[in-house]
């Protein structure tokens, strides 16, 4: 087949069509010229038309070739195909390595990768995640106080339902706020979620019984917190692709900051003004942080316009669960890995303060150890976020989860009765779990298109919600009489769930790019 130049009067791109095989196809507009000008790339049925006479005479061609461009000129292959356009170039080995990384990444041509607006968004998300993630890192401080005061005559397996319901409602509500964000932006869910969350904290201040705590803290705070979670996590990928892991890690450091400040603040407030006013002041601090988040955290990419009526839009949220995502095995294993990782981290964070109390520490020392967990989480989020962009997000996640499993077995179980070992474990485990929290969303984004990230992230956490709802009562049942031996059994349970998460992420990587240790993914 002869390849020549186009005549100036032809507009072949106007008559060509882009055929996308499935929702997982990623189209790179930078490849258009290569597809058109290279006869060996793309569809084998491609024909090039009408050469320019002057150019032909200079190149030694005496006659014109009259060919036609096929209407289905440019075809994109499925993302699951091993033969990509980039792999058809002569430098096959180098291109294969590049394509493995690019296969699941979005086109970065439109990403600012910085600038004032992008950095303000990161700051806004940081402030918003300070209470949103911070409350998850403060559950231990709240659980310990109400277990020793308002609910001191209630078994751990019953008290655990307060926090189980909170985590379940928190994660299930993500699916609606994530879908709403994809269609309408971040502002409305952030405002609604802030009002519900802070209102729930004010109501929690007056609670005396289990059912009151479940309704105020579990349901109201959980729904409000979950409503803010998806929009806050989803706006950063609108501005960064190549450095996405780093800046999501920086933004999520707000959760560690909240985990450092809030337990100490509550401990002081409990002693000075009591539980009721302590929770109210906590609510006002969270309101201030969320207000800054609302002001700066905003999306960049446009939303699709819909001609649906208001009723049709409301009913469409019943389909917010992205069931089609589970047709992709890579997403299935990411969801399983995320579920077991969250179970490991959240259950341990909920009961760790009580664990240190059982080991003989004072109440002030127990709160200090909880704070050190979040201190360790700050460098954990930053360092692993940076490394994830360099050596692969799945690679760092797998290592971190395996490291978490090892730390529990090597430090906590044999030496947990030594206060020095508890200080060391708090910092090291905090480093590891801070890394896990920051990479969960990044690994989801690794196998998702940016415009679908909010929905898929929310769908993932809808599944996670059921895991955490079951795990907190299971943990409470294992703890039982709150003896040292029972708490050690619980820590073994936590370590094994971290190991299971590492296995699922490893399988997910294998599905995408194989098991090569040097493969960046």
Automatic annotation (TrEMBL):
The UniProt record lists the keyword Membrane: yes
Gene3D superfamilies documented for this protein: MFS general substrate transporter like domains (1.20.1250.20)
Keywords of this entry: Membrane, Transmembrane, Transmembrane helix
Protein name: Riboflavin transporter
Domain Major facilitator superfamily (MFS) profile intervals: 117-512
Presence of keyword Transmembrane: yes
GO biological-process terms attached to the record: riboflavin transport
A GO CC term assigned to this protein in UniProt: membrane
Transmembrane parts of this sequence: 118-141, 161-181, 188-205, 211-233, 245-265, 277-297, 331-352, 364-384, 396-415, 421-447, 459-479, 491-517
PROSITE patterns per record: MFS
Localization (cell): Membrane
């Amino acid at each position: 087949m002869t390849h020549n130049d186009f005549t100036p009067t032809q507009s072949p791109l106007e008559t060509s069509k882009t055929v996308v095989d499935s929702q997982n196809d990623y189209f790179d507009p930078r490849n258009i010229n290569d597809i058109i000008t290279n006869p060996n790339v793309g569809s084998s049925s491609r024909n090039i038309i009408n050469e320019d006479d002057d150019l032909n005479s200079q190149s030694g061609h005496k006659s014109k070739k009259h060919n036609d461009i096929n209407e289905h000129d440019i075809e994109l292959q499925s993302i699951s195909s091993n033969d990509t356009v980039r792999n058809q170039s002569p430098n096959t080995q180098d291109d294969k390595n590049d394509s493995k990384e690019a296969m699941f990444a979005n086109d970065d041509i439109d990403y600012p990768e910085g600038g004032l607006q992008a950095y303000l968004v990161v700051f806004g998300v940081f402030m918003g995640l300070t209470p949103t993630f911070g409350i998850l890192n403060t559950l231990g401080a709240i659980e310990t106080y109400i277990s020793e005061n308002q609910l001191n005559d209630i078994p751990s397996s019953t008290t655990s339902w307060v926090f189980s319901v909170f985590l379940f409602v928190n994660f299930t509500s993500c699916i609606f706020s994530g879908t709403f964000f994809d269609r309408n932006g971040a502002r409305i869910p952030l405002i609604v979620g802030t009002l519900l969350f802070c209102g729930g904290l004010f109501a929690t201040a007056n609670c005396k019984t289990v059912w009151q705590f479940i309704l105020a803290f579990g349901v109201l705070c959980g729904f409000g917190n979950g409503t803010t979670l998806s929009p806050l996590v989803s706006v950063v990928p609108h501005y960064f692709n190549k450095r996405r892991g780093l800046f999501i890690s920086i933004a999520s450091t707000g959760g560690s900051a909240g985990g450092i400040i809030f337990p100490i603040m509550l401990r002081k407030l409990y002693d000075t003004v009591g539980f009721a006013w302590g929770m109210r002041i906590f609510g006002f601090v969270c309101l201030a942080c969320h207000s800054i988040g609302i002001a700066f955290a905003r999306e960049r990419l446009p939303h699709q316009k819909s001609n649906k009526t208001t009723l049709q839009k409301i009913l469409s949220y019943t389909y917010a669960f992205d069931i089609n995502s589970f047709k992709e095995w890579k997403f299935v294993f990411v969801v399983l890995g995320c579920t077991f990782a969250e179970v490991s981290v959240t259950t341990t964070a909920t009961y760790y303060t009580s664990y240190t109390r059982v080991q003989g520490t004072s109440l002030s020392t127990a709160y200090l150890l909880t704070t050190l967990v979040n201190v360790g989480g700050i460098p954990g989020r930053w360092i692993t976020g940076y490394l994830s962009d360099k050596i692969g997000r799945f690679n760092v996640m797998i290592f971190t989860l395996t490291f978490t499993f090892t730390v529990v077995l090597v430090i906590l179980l044999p030496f947990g009765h030594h206060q020095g070992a508890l200080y060391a474990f708090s910092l090291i485990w905090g480093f590891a779990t801070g890394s896990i929290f920051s990479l969960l969303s990044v690994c989801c984004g690794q196998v998702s298109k940016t415009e679908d990230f909010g929905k898929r992230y929310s769908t993932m956490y809808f599944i996670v919600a059921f895991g955490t709802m079951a795990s907190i009562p299971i943990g409470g049942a294992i703890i039982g009489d709150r003896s040292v031996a029972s708490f050690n059994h619980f820590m073994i349970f936590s370590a094994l769930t971290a190991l299971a998460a590492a296995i699922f992420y490893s399988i997910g990587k294998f599905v995408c790019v194989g098991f090569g240790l040097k493969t960046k993914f």
